[in-house]
């Protein structure tokens, strides 16, 4: 099975790039499932219902969130209507919405999509993600109750992300980090067969400070005072993400590759999936 995950979409630049490029990626690579992190899509802070529906229209099957899940207050309401809009699964009991989804693909397979949030250098401090995800994986074992498992681990610290990847190794198809907005070069298949990448990178303008227009973040470092609101940078976005091919019998990864399309970063295509044109 072919899985595509695209990292945090930041502001209008990221949204426009998703609307333009995701239909082309679907046509080019024919993925069974596409997951997009949309927690910075509404001017950098949270997501609106219209933006979520726009991602589905562009070709996303599931949208994940993170620490900014409820920055747009309406999300507390509309998240209940969409089983394919996920906030971190380790949000304490009573939080609206859900953190996992069992998705039926058009090819007749089932994929468990999960999002969890780390607890190192990130707010809010949620429940411990390790035992929460342990329970989720035990309830839906890969190869038995589902054909693949995709986990978005939304965290700041690469140490926590790597520990979490190894914790899930052999029990998930992909553990991919989000939140830090910079694509890492450590994509690999771990010893137990789980594809891993510390951060997928953002879908946003890289002439910025992690997607935000750079003057305000720089002056905050210099003066330790806010002058104006942070706003997303508006130049052309690079779509950043990761592609995984899974084994149909076990759900484990057979191939993992980064995706980078458009904007300023060096481009990365999924050469293993390129269709030979005679
Ligand atoms: Fe985040």
Tag the structure with descriptive keywords.
23% helix; binds fe (ii) ion; Purple Acid Phosphatase, chain A, domain 2; six-stranded mixed beta sheet; alpha/beta; 278 residues
Report on the architecture of this protein.
With 278 residues, this protein is α/β, with parallel strands linked by helices. The chain has one domain (2-206, 236-273): Purple Acid Phosphatase, chain A, domain 2. The chain has six helices and twelve strands. The strands form two sheets. Strands 4-3-2-1-11-12 form a six-stranded mixed β-sheet. The chain has a six-stranded mixed β-sheet with strand order 5-6-7-8-10-9, covered by helices on one side. The radius of gyration is 18 Å and the shape is globular. The relative contact order is 0.17. The model has no long low-confidence stretch (mean pLDDT 97).
Number of strands: 12
What radius of gyration results from the CA coordinates?
Answer: 18 Å
| Largest β sheet strand count, sense and barrel closure | 6 strands, mixed
Spatial order of strands in the largest sheet: 4-3-2-1-11-12
Element-by-element helix/strand order: EHEHEHEEEHEHEEEHEE
> Would you tell me which CATH topology applies?
Purple Acid Phosphatase, chain A, domain 2
